[in-house]
């Protein structure tokens, strides 16, 4: 059936795109799904070559906003597919204008090839990075040097190695770090101090879980009188409020396996 991906997408102001490498009998086939705010408008499993061509045609549509580009699936042909996409982007002088990128794979790790593709995202459009897979050490060390990482405001990341440094996350405004290695009191304090900074807007938060928190060690770092707010759960061991300008509060909640912090007016924190 003949179709025009440009005509399919053109009526919409924004779309979401999912690219999934498929475990099919014919190698180098990929599933492309395009979603509007109301539902799926296109879905097809076909050759990597045609998927790449359609992606380029989508990126050529003026003013089309890509809410999220999701890339995942099985990875037997992942390197070749990424190379094909990167080559097409470079040949057509295109950047991926997506607000959020979501990398996930089912049986391997995020590699330097993912980082190479990340460098082809428009830094002015990209606000969120989501990584739902293990990240190799060398890939992580390269990823944090990219302008895309440095300018993004939202991060969700799973399955950490032990080579991460908390300094790599201090600029994000909304942070989920899941299965994080044991976090030191000093690293907890660095995150708290970063969120007390006026450059981090109200509504921001960080949530570091699947870790081990030295609760007493963190409390010893506080530079305000220690006062535990009313606890709303038996799992939270300490809730500290840090007063900020204009009646804003940074709430820090300490658990044995998690540290959670939220920034806002006291009444607004109940809505988080």
Can you give a write-up of this model?
- Helices cover 27% and strands 31% of the residues.
- It has a 12-stranded mixed β-sheet.
- It has a domain at 5-164.
- The protein contains 9 helices and 12 strands.
- It is elongated.
- With 272 residues, the protein is an alpha/beta fold.
- The mean pLDDT is 90.
- This is FTH domain-containing protein.
- It holds the Pfam family FTH.
- Residues 80-195 form the DUF38 domain.
- InterPro entries: DUF38/FTH_CAE_spp.
Compile the SSE list and pairings:
Layout: H1 5-9, E1 14-21, E2 29-36, E3 39-47, H2 48-59, E4 65-73, H3 78-91, E5 98-103, H4 112-118, E6 128-131, H5 137-143, H6 147-151, E7 154-158, E8 174-178, H7 185-196, E9 205-209, H8 215-221, E10 236-243, E11 248-255, E12 258-265, H9 266-269
Helix pairs in contact: 2-3, 3-4, 4-5, 7-8
Features:
272 residues; DUF38/FTH_CAE_spp; alpha/beta; FTH domain-containing protein
Entry summary:
The protein has 272 residues and is an alpha/beta fold. The protein has a domain at 5-164. The protein is built from nine helices and twelve strands.
Q: Residue ranges: pLDDT <50 for 5 or more in a row? A: none
Please tally the β strands and state the result. 12
Q: For the report, how would you describe the main beta sheet?
A: 12 strands, mixed
Overall mean pLDDT stands at 90
Strand numbers in spatial order across the main sheet: 3-2-1-4-5-6-7-8-9-12-11-10
Structural class: alpha/beta
- Listing every helix as H and every strand as E from the N terminus to the C terminus, the arrangement reads HEEEHEHEHEHHEEHEHEEEH
Helical proportion? 25-40%
Structural shape: elongated
Strand proportion, as a percent range, falls in 25-35%
Number of helices: 9
**Structural Rg:** 21 Å
């Amino acid at each position: 059936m003949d179709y025009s991906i440009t005509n399919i997408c053109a009526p919409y102001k924004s779309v979401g795109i999912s690219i999934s490498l498929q475990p099919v009998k014919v190698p180098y086939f990929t599933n492309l799904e395009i979603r509007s705010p109301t539902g799926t408008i296109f879905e097809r499993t076909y050759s990597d070559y045609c998927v790449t061509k359609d992606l380029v045609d989508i990126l050529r549509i003026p003013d089309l906003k890509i809410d999220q580009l999701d890339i995942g699936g099985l990875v037997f042909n992942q390197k070749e597919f990424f190379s094909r996409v990167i080559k097409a982007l470079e040949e057509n002088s295109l950047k991926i204008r997506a607000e959020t990128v979501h990398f996930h794979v089912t049986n391997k790790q995020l590699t330097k090839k993912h980082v190479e593709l990340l460098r082809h995202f428009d830094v002015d459009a990209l606000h969120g990075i989501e990584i739902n897979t293990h990240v190799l050490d060398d890939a992580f060390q390269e990823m944090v040097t990219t302008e895309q990482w440095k300018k993004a405001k939202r991060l969700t990341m799973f399955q950490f190695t032990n080579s991460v440094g908390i300094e790599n996350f201090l600029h994000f405004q909304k942070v989920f770090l899941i299965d994080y290695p044991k976090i030191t009191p000093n690293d907890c304090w660095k995150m708290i101090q970063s969120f007390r900074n006026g450059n981090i807007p109200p509504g921001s938060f960080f949530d570091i879980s699947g870790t081990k928190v030295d609760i007493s060690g963190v409390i010893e770092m506080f530079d305000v009188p220690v006062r535990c707010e009313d606890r709303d759960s038996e799992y939270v061991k300490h809730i500290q409020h840090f007063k900020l300008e204009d009646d804003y509060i940074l709430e820090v909640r300490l658990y044995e396996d998690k540290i959670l912090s939220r920034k806002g007016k006291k009444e607004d924190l109940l809505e988080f």
